[in-house]
Amino acid sequence: MGSLIKSDSNFSVVVTSISSPNLALKKIAEGSLVRKCSFYVIGDRNSPLNFQLDGCRYVSLSEQKKLSLKLAQVAPENHYSRKNIGYLLAIKNGAQVIVETDDDNIPLKRFWSKRSQSQNVSQIDHGSWLNAYAFFIDRNIWPRGYPLEYLRNGSPSKRSGFLTKVNSPIQQGLANNNPDVDAVFRMTQKLPFTFNKASSIALGARTWCPFNSQNTTWFKDAFPLLYLPSYCSFRLTDIWRSFVAQRIAWTCGWNILFHDPTVYQERNEHNLLKDFKDEIDGYINNAQICKTLNKLELRDGTEYIFTNLRTCYEEMVKHGWISDIHELSLLDSWIEDITSLGL
After folding, report:
1. Which of 38, 95, 139, 294 has its CA 20 to 30 A from that of 52?
2. Distance from first CA to last CA of the chain, Å, rounded?
3. What is the rounded CA–CA span in Å between residue 14 and residue 179?
4. Euclidean distance between CA atoms 312 and 248, whole angstroms
5. Burial track 302-323 (b if 16+ CB lie within 10 A, e otherwise)
């Protein structure tokens, strides 16, 4: 990924958390201080009242409501999608690269390496569902959000011998130890494990694989696609965002890139049956959602990114996958905010 960042005020890390400062947050804050990067921790209703951590900008719920951001006034509370406020703050303060992660992911040294939007990598043009994890480990594992009905189809795990220069403003990093897998995997397979060190891959157009918000790099070109929907389960919000983002990325000539781990996870406590319940809408609908998005007649070019974004979410609401039409007014607030910030 390149040399370590010495100092980069254009590089921002965004997390949402209801935790007191823990090991992951402290390590990110330490790294941000050393490298003079911005680190935003977005609070919510159940966040500690006196959160203090050198090296991060903590934004409480009450402080969020005082911001001159329309979305901050109307976004639902007690939901992972409050992370949207962190993205907007990073953009407002001049971020050119946003790396998002969670409060149980501890950065490895490579987390702080410089990132490049344009890379020479193996491009996979599968034209269907592709299990990207298969390229980084020799065992049966799949990312959260991958349709269960396609697990037995088999994904090619061999990279092309040819490298292609790709434009990838969205890059999914993996996580070691306790990676982002679904509740079905957690209840039936063994953890923890470590991914193999391997070169990055880029997915071609119409090649689907969910990506999450656990360790993801966003370059400025793709900032409009950061939007997390609110009227769905928190176990699905980043997955469904990834489907919308992939569909629109193809209209811009962009690839989605996957690279080996730059964090390891010490997972927060979860109730796996509750996770399973919160993921059921995904198990049932993920494949159909992407089939529907595939059929949409979107316009090519980055100048249509906001139009395409609204078209995709209108379709999600129309089919009832997004459970409330108010999602569209939240999206409009996001678009209004992000355009007012120069995008």
Report:
1. 95
2. 26
3. 19
4. 9
5. eeebbebbebbbbbbbeeebbe
Handedness of CA 245, 100, 334, 319 (dihedral sign): positive
Averaged confidence pLDDT in the chain: 93
CB 218 within 8 A of CB 97: yes
Q: Nearest-CA neighbor of 143 among 74, 236, 210, 235?
A: 210
Q: What does the alpha-carbon distance between residue 341 and residue 335 come to, in Å, rounded to a whole number? A: 10
Between CA 300 and CA 6 the distance in angstroms is 37
pTM higher than the cut 0.85: yes
CB-based contacts of 277, cutoff 8 Å, min separation 6: none
pLDDT above 50 (res 5) = no
In the beta sheet, which residues pair with residue 13? Answer: 39, 99
Cα 317 from Cα 257, distance rounded (Å): 28
Distances (CA, A) of 286 to 38, 134, 209, 239: 34, 19, 11, 9
Distance from C-alpha of 189 to C-alpha of 103, rounded to nearest angstrom? 24
For residue 61, CA distances in Å to 52, 72, 80 come to 15, 9, 13
